[in-house]
Amino acid sequence: MSFISLPLHALNKPQRRAVIAVWLGWGFDIFDALLLNFVAPNAIPTLLGLEIGSAAAKAATAQWTGILTALLLVGWAIGGVLFGHLADRIGRRRALLLTIAVYALGTGASACSPNLAMLIVFRLIASLGLGGEFSTGATLVAETVPESRRLIAGAFLQTASPLGLILASLTTWLIAGVWMADAPTLSWRFVLGAGVLPILLVMLLRARADAPDREPTSTRPLRIALKRLFTPGLRAATFSAIAMSILALFTWWSCNAFLPTIGAGLGARAATAAGLTGAAAVSLAESWKASITLWFNLGGMVGALLTVPAARRLGRRGMFALYYAVGALSLLLAFGIAWSPTVTLHLTFLVGLSVFGVFGAFTYYLPELFPADVRGLGAGFAYNIGRLGAALGPFAVGAYTAHQADTTTGAMHALTALVALPVIAICVTPFIVETKNRPPLRVDTADPQP
């Protein structure tokens, strides 16, 4: 399967460093960003003074998981635009290092939150740094790796995201489900604290990652650079990037934010059926939470790599249409039919294959749309406008789920309704810009008038 290989020996030393550094950074960033979703059933009731596992705690967890995820996406969007522009001005590598410093501060502080209000503040700080990762990392690799390797390098980067999620689920299971299963009011703080540890390795690697010779590429103020994205030559590209980003991110975040809730609920049902109580029941619920996330992320990893042959054969439009069609079908199959818990668990692989896998294309499609002088800003702006739109998804799913008698069933009903989004995306894809075999866009040194 040569199409899913990225022979690093074919790259020179700076190129290998850039790919490995960004790959590790993305994985650890996703690991860090989503740890809170895994510990929310323990963290939120503890900070609100509610009994863990009670009906009030489950309703509050569903509602605040949606709110916190929505706020994370808003901060992520703001950080993505700011750091994307900063990367065009000061260089990709320096901007990447700065994102790590910001989210490291937010992550470390989140583990020490005395109340829910301070947790929100710390998560917003972390989200600003997390937001810069996509645009700066994708642009760094797109400008460092030779064109013949760029497509597979972009898809390879996206495999770090499901691995980061798998690491988050396993970390939560080990700490909250095994080592500290009898201390749920405290274990979540250690889980969040674990998010700080990989940052030291990433900072070391990125400090040695060589940046492209042609950076920085822009000295424009942010206001003028944003105007450039909406000039006649780039307007279609900008709207294409925004449309694909909103629809994909809305679906993914709505699914991913509540898969731990569904997994824990299915695990709790299994524990009740087996007559388990106490730490044994907690451990089983945590293992189900890890399992459902594992299947989803394994699907995402495979799907990300398969975007490469799909994009080569079908073009970018055809590839997106195929993934959205499979996404609609998989959401209906996994959450719209009353299967046994084990079948539902395994069907999340198909959801990950499509809903998560499609992001393997964004790492090369978005940089392809823009010329070098606004590539970091263009990719960051479009993708993070998508995050702003996506913030409505977890908020709506959380609000709906919180008012259902059974939060597990309610979350599954809400995710079934998401099928409308990939259907809309299928209708939109014929109108997006096709970048297959298109020559690179030239840098335009003329600024639009303010």
Can you tell me about this structure?
It contains 17 helices and no strands. The protein is an all-alpha fold and 450 residues long. The protein has one domain (12-211, 218-431): Growth Hormone, Chain: A (Up-down Bundle), CATH 1.20.1250. Helix 2 (55-90) packs antiparallel against helix 15 (392-402) and helix 5 crosses helix 11 (278-335).
Rg estimate, integer Å:
21 Å
Q: What's the CATH topology label? A: Growth Hormone, Chain: A
Helix content: over 70%
- Uncertain runs with pLDDT below 50, 5 residues or more? 1-5, 210-215, 445-450
- Named at the architecture level, the CATH assignment is Up-down Bundle
The domain tally reads 1
Number of DSSP-assigned strands: 0
User: What is the quaternary state of this protein?
Assistant: single chain
Largest sheet: none
What is the CATH superfamily classification? MFS general substrate transporter like domains
Q: Report the sheet-strand fraction.
A: under 5%
Q: Tell me, what's the shape?
A: globular
| Strand-pairing-aware structural class | mainly alpha
Write down the overall mean pLDDT.
82
Question: Which series of helices and strands comes N to C?
Answer: HHHHHHHHHHHHHHHHH
From the N-terminal CA to the C-terminal CA, the straight-line distance is 51 Å
CATH class equals: Mainly Alpha
Number of helical regions: 17
Which tags fit this structure?
disordered C terminus; single chain; 450 residues; mainly alpha; Growth Hormone, Chain: A
Outline:
By secondary structure, the protein is an all-alpha fold. Helix content is 78%, strand content 0%.
